[in-house]
Amino acid sequence: MWQLVFLTLGCDLVLAAAYTNFRRGMDSVGKRQYQVQQGSCSYTFLLPETDNCRSSSSYAASAVQRDSPLDYDDSVQRLQVLENIMENNTQWLMKVLNQTTRLELQLLEHSLSTSKLEKQILDQTSEINKLQDKNSFLEKKVLDMEDKHIVQLQSIKEEKDQLQVLVSKQNSIIEELEKQLVTATVNSSVLQKQQHDLMETVHNLLTMISSNAAKNSFGAKEEAVVFRDCAEAFKSGRSASGVYALLFPNSTEEVKAYCDMETAGGGWTVIQRREDGSVDFQRTWNEYKVGFGNPSGEHWLGNEFVFQVTNQQPYVLKIHLQDWEGNEAYSLYEHFSLSSEEFNYRIHLQGLTGTAGKISSISQPGTDFSTKDADNDKCICKCSQMLTGGWWFDACGPSNLNGMYYPQRQNTNKFSGIKWYYWKGSGYSLKATTMMIRPADF
């Protein structure tokens, strides 16, 4: 049987299978349409009418009967070939149907995926809109905060300007007060010097009056006894502590000194004493050279006398210290002497013992003496001006017994005060000090 088949897909795909070798024969045969619906696709088949097929068969049979046996066999073979071709085409159509079905499923899945994607896009768009709204709110809030901060900064700047003006005024007032304080300090120092000079003059007058009265009462004239040092006075029978006249070695010049005839066996010549702050120790080089103050109170005996005495024979130095809490300590040097003025009255010490520290608070080896007008220390600063007083400063070292006198409860954290580092530290200002010497063989 010869037939012509056309396949039409509802998804706009048209497939046709024809046997081109018999197209002309089929044109004269009647055809009938058969339509099959498969999902969204429809299939249309065009097949020959049955009667025509029968007539054709009869005609073919009669023709076969009329033809020779060879023609008949050839027709049978051709028919067999056509049937094979029809079978192949049928299988091919089944494959096309299967592929079409899979394609529809893929299209359906793709449509579903597209719907999901569209939904996700819509959801994300909604989230983006929400985030944009939130961002707009935050931007507005940030702008409001910036405006507030600008106002606050402006207010702070105005307060800063006002404080700067106030600080400038206070600095001017402080500078003026400092000038007044310096003037008052100078005036106080002058007054203190005048007061002590007057007291010394009165003391000398009283001594002279007492001496003259004694001489008049006995009706005799006698010369005052002068000693080389207090040890000599002690050995001569003078056992009472007090002011004695001492003679410069190899000279007729005298100096008044206080002799301690009680401490550790007596015979001590006092070369320095601090006890009440009544004497200003911020003095010149020459004043420290010749001495100042009242021998019975606060005073400095004089570097020149101490130099000459300590170079005649070996001397010991004892430094007695007292704090504001009632404690006492001392440092004893077994060998003590001063160099001449040419060598800036350099101090030499050896053999330390005592209770005021195991280390000497006077720098060793020997250091030069410095005053406010003679800077001989080893510091680029001027220790005597910074710490006040004349002393063997080295590099503004650990001691200064001639510093500023500070009263009780004002004596801590005072680096310009009367200090002995290895007993009370650098910021503690002592209540009282005494420096005294006597021969090493006493």
The CATH C-level class name of the largest domain: Alpha Beta
Please indicate the percent range of residues in DSSP E strands (runs of 2 or more). 15-25%
Query: What is the fourth-level CATH superfamily of the largest domain?
Result: Gamma Fibrinogen, chain A, domain 1
Q: In CATH terms, what is the architecture of the largest domain?
A: Alpha-Beta Complex
Q: Estimate percent helicity.
A: 40-55%
Question: Major β-sheet, in short?
Answer: 9 strands, antiparallel
Give the rounded overall mean pLDDT.
81
Given the structure, what is the number of helices? 8
Rg to the nearest angstrom? Answer: 65 Å
Supply the helix-strand structural class: alpha+beta
The coarse silhouette is rod-shaped
Order of helices and strands: EEHEEHHHEEEHEEHEEEHEEHE
